[in-house]
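INFO  loader      accepted 1 record
INFO  loader      residues=509
INFO  predictor   begin
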Amino acid sequence: MKRIAILIFLFPFVFVRQSFGLDDIEARLKTLEETIKVQQNTIENQQREINELKGQQKRATLSQAASPPGTQVSSKETVEQSKPQEVEETADRTKQIDKKYSENLKTLEVNSFAQPKFVPDISFILDGSYVDRNVKDATLEHLKVPAFIPSGIESNNQNRGFNFNYGELYLHSAVDPYFDLNATIPFSEDGVEVEEAYITTTSLPLGFQVKAGKFRSSFGRLNPQHEHVWDFADAPLVNRAFFGEEGLDENGVQINWLAPTPFYLLLGAEILQGENDASFGTGAITLSKNGFPEFTKDETERPNLLVAFVKSSMDIGNLSLLGGLSYAQGKTRLTATNDTTPIASYGDTQIFGVDLTAKYFIDSYRYVSWQSEFMYRHMDLTTGANLAPDNPNQPLSIFDEGKRQSGFYSQLVFRFSERWRIGARYDLLNQNDVYLSGEKQNFPGDLNKLSAMLDFHLSEFSMLRLQFSRDNSLFAGNSLFAGNNTRESKNEVILQYNIAIGAHGAHSF
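INFO  predictor   done
INFO  writer      dumping tokens
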């Protein structure tokens, strides 16, 4: 057919040549036919090479599809679509490989498994410091903030010299369309603990979300944050006084609601176990005298602690504002020892909080941030104390104890270049009203601390911070009764480093 078509195509030219009296047409047609045959052979050879190259490409694709887990596996339909339909494979070996891997792909199609989908985001954060202070470690351990903090030793930066503060392992992953899972596991020289391990819902309607497990309470501004997010190397005095060194970190459940308003408005409530040993507690308490329990109280009902909060924010040009109100209420079971005096208390505690953060962005990386937080604590307790443990003839002292205490911190941070920040913070425990059997105790006031810091971010994964603080809140003496406390000021210099590796979620504003 091709030959006939070519002859028909060439007929006008032959007719023209004949009309002009040209001869030897058969010789010329024969020459043209031979030329066409040569071109057809060339086309067939080129088509064969194309088929071989396609076969090699297909074998490489099938080999990749059968590679170990963690690589992308194509579906059966994708393999069939990539297969040339109009050209058959020229080698039997290719057909055998095709059949072999097609059977495997059928199995993978039913039980598909992509390993990266099941590997969570994993990061590790290392925090350490070098500390120099004017108070010896043994002395600092016996200093206290009267009626607030029983020891001057903090959880981080404990010793003069070098400190390994913590190594924090962080895990995050989407479980399924309904839940995310987060876990924070800090390592220290004292061992390993689970700071947070909780699930959050991702698909509840109407703006609701539920969190369940062990987590840092959303009370206030600073408490929900991990330590490596803080702008300073230590927690403010009021946070340590009301929630202890570990903060309000509890087992429980949280439900929050994001209101459908044109600005950010979040309302939430938490039901927590209430084991915090700075303001609450759940265990039974007992004080004995001469081997007999004379002051006891049963453990609390669990869960013991209720927390409620409201958070809102808005933007005004380059200025972002974030504020919140918080409330916590629960039963109290506390035991302590002031020097050689065993003390136990039970009762009720309420804590109120208000916080405000304002951040003004000068440009893409420079900003000025002002953050403040105020808390008020109301405690009504019944307290027992063994004032003379070595005197068997003196009974336990039991009295009503009331505390009306408050404090705040206010800090200003200026990021003046892409990597550098400078800041200052003022802490003050401004109210320390303690009543024993209705009589107000004359505890010292003006419990303040001033801190200044300069930090340098080498990258988003590494940071160095230099901080100086003067702490005027520490006293030597018995913190149960006023009148015999002596102030001991502490000057401290901290050189802190914080290094992070791995995938870590973005921090909140």
